[in-house]
Amino acid sequence: MHPVAESLHRRFPEIVTGSREALGDLTVYLKENGALEVFRVLHDDPEFRYDYIVDVTSVDYPMDPERFEVVYIFYSLPRRHRILVKIRVPETHPVVDSIVSIWKGAEFMEREVYDMMGIQFRGHPDLRRILMPDDYDEGYPLRKDFPLVGKGWRDDFSFVPKYHEGLPPLPKGSS
Amino acid sequence: MESLEKEKVGGAAAEAPTVRREITLSTLRQAVLNGLDSSIKTEQFLLNMGPQHPSTHGVLRVLLDLDGERIKKAVPDLGYLHRGTEKIAEYRTYNQIIPLTDRLDYVSAMANNYAFVRAVEKLLQLKVPARAEYIRTIVAEMQRIVNHLFWLGTQALDIGAMSVFFYTFREREVLLDLFEKICGARLTTNYYRVGGVEGDLTRDVIDALYSFVETFEGHIKEYNTLLETNRIWLARTKHIAVITGEDAVNFGLSGPTLRGSGVDYDLRKYEPYAAYDQVEWSVPVGHNGDIYDRYYIRVEEMRQSASIIRQCLDKLPEGPFMTDDHKVSFPPKGRVMHNMETLIHHFLLVVEGFKTPPGDTYCGTETPKGELGFYIVSDGSGKPYRMKIRAPSFVSMGAFDHMARGYMIADIVTIFGTYDIVMGECDR
After folding, report:
1. What is the structure's pLDDT at A150?
2. Alpha carbon of B27 to those of A174, B42, B43: distances in Å?
3. Domain residue limits at B35
4. Labelling B420: which of A43, B12, B16, B301 has CA 20 to 30 A away?
């Protein structure tokens, strides 16, 4: 096991559920409950020092009981090491703790995750949609059950052929 | 205090309910001595800037909370250029996504192509031939020069120094013409491929590049004579939008925006890829963390890029420019036309794409604007299950409020510019 994962597991045995090393990256899996404390240690503790926030994102697995996976990517500038942290949340209660109090850069990233996947961040200072319009109420575009076409303003026009109906017949005489 | 203020009624006294208050010199003096709020009535002022504004480098709206001309709070409103690239990518094969990445940051398309193919190669654990690595390095550094020239010209134009723009665009044109020779397009290049590049560097391109880097140092001096000691430029850039190194790291800033604050984080040094560990170059770092330092770093980076290009051209090895692993690369066209199996192979690569092993990976690349990362989740098919783009412009906008607070409204223009922001990449 990677020393970082081992040390984390020793300190938080009931929150850290596992770890994986693949393609040169370390991934640590956490439980939602209590994860904020692990993040704080990852940032502050001189043993880890993951001071640079790379990204916060999410993946949708509609078939799984815990549908959404929130993925955090951090980098440690002094130690030159990257870590991926993953938390699973169910569709019925898609809420995780916000990490804006630790990494200020997470504010926009978490807003984007909320906008695109509908995951709520507890304690976020300004959780609004960021890329979609503020009053958009047709769901969350990056969820797997949101169709690629058929939900835009273009599809409101009657003369635009509908995606599922196929193309209209060609006019007579054209080849 | 109130008695000092003479209330003066405007021209049409009877009808007009508006009352103009005259501020006398003594009021002002009192105000300066006692503090502003006691004598002159002030109020916070909310100003909407954009979505269309010549200085926003794209379609961006900012809500400014002002106290006089000072910025109290700046709230960026993003998303006007949101095209759903991440959603579209889930329905495209990997080769079909490369042209989508051109459209992210449309002033440095080559760098985006590179960031994407590197992520896919990491997922495939694919080795790229040495010549391809060198060509990639050369073209990526050409793109860095193109991007920084574009930035320098427009930043100076925003501040009011018109002439710099003409000089920087003169050199940018030379490099864009070379792009056209290399891949057939100037802006939407679609040149990098998973496993190599689309075409080889020809002799005349190499010669033209040699003569370009030969003369480029002199051109940088030209820009610097226009700006380096220009009093207006100095007044508009020195000690504006200062951010400490600690804050910049906490916000996740990258590229020249981060290095201006004294943090030497550059992925080309921290996690060397391509030919960057085989040539001599250094990472310029500022120490004030203001707009001037970031300008200086970008100019210095252009020098380093020119040096990297020259060294790579000297060392350019012979050999193939595309991997011979035909699981990902297309078979030679001559064989496709004569051999049944090769034709089927070609057809399947186009229709289904190559398969990636299940798993996920994050791969960051140092583009001219900062760390452009691709997080790709693969389910084993020819299309990504999920693709997240970590856009440096988007992360920079997160720090906009922090960096703009306390500065004057006229500085907004330079603060936009200092991120080298492109809204296509910010909104994706």
Report:
1. 67
2. 83, 14, 18
3. 1-42
4. A43
**ipTM of this complex:** 0.86
Q: Tell me, what CATH number does B359's domain have?
A: 1.10.645.10
Q: Annotate A7-23 with b (16+ C-beta within 10 A) or e (fewer).
A: bbbeebeebbeebeeee
Q: Does pLDDT of A168 surpass 70?
A: no
Predicted confidence (pLDDT) per residue in A20-34, tens digit: 888 888 999 998 888
Kindly determine whether residue B362 and residue A54, on different chains, have CB atoms separated by under 8 Å: yes
- Which stretches in chain B have pLDDT values below 50? 1-16
Mean pLDDT (chain A, rounded): 85
Q: Is B98 helix (H, G, I), strand (E, B) or coil?
A: helix
Domain holding A91, by residue range, is 3-135
For residue A71, the domain's CATH number is: 3.30.460.80
Q: Look at strands A120-122 and A95-97 and give their pairing.
A: parallel
CA distance B22 to chain A (A): 41
- Report percent pLDDT > 70 for chain B: 90
- Contact assignment for A132 to B79 by CB distance below 8 Å: yes
Is A136 at the interface with chain B, CB within 8 A?
no
Paired sense of beta strands A25-30 and A16-22, if any: antiparallel
A56-104 residue pLDDT tens:
999 999 888 888 999 999 999 998 899 999 999 998 889 999 999 999 9
- Is the CB of residue A104 less than 8 Å away from at least one CB of chain B? yes
Sign of CA dihedral A133, A136, A141, A147: negative
Is the distance from CB of B182 to CB of B191 less than 8 angstroms?
Answer: yes
Q: Mark residue A165 as left, alpha or beta (left: phi above 0; alpha: psi -120 to 50; beta: remaining).
A: alpha
